[in-house]
Amino acid sequence: MEKPVVPDGWNACSGSRATAIGVLGRWPRIDVLARARTSSIIKVEAEHPRRVSDVERRAVAIRDGARRWSEFWDGRLDFEALGWEVAELIADLTAGEERVERAGLQAQHFWQRIYGDDPLLLSVPGMGPRTAPTVRAFFGDARQFESAKQTQAYVGLNPSNWSSGQTASPSRAITKEGPSVLRLAFY
Q: Are 83 and 28 contacting, i.e. CB atoms less than 8 angstroms apart?
């Protein structure tokens, strides 16, 4: 007996969220995507490149995955209703991303007005106009920390230590204590 195939559209898009959104934005109905031309899918992919060596193979995988899903759900799912919902969710996602972008720009504006160029923070490798305001928001002028170790512990980037009886395992994974937003900014 043949094993059932559960197609994975995410893998077909090579893990590219932008490609998945672009393809579903163009073809919100999975049954219509299943019949799309490979060349049409490639055009949408070209708008969202992600270092994929064989774009045509990926386009075929996307279409074939849609075909398998369409065959699997045929008669059990209203493709028109699903297509409408997918289009609405993509519109919501796009609007949300635009709001986040505007909020980020506004935060940069406020930070610039308060701290100027902040040459000290911006001199740290990897620190840019998005990360610096986050760090500044949590640290302020950082006078509350007496040492770099104390600061590292506050962020949760210090290695955890484990010991039991005569066994010790220093320098294991980080503790992850402290504000996760700040830790994410450092990553």
A: yes
Q: Is 9 left (phi over 0), alpha (psi -120 to 50) or beta?
A: alpha
What is the SS3 assignment for 168?
Answer: strand
pTM over 0.70: no
**Which helix (H) or strand (E) segment is 31 a member of?**
helix 30-33
The residue among 61, 25, 60 whose CA lies nearest residue 44 is: 25
| Average pLDDT score over residue span 169-185 | 75
User: Radius of gyration over alpha carbons of the chain, in Å?
Assistant: 24
To the nearest 10°, the Cα dihedral for 76, 79, 84, 85? 40
Alpha carbon distance 163, 16 (integer Å):
42
Delimit the domains of the chain by residue range.
9-91, 117-186
> Is the separation of the CB atoms in 175 and 151 below 8 Å?
no
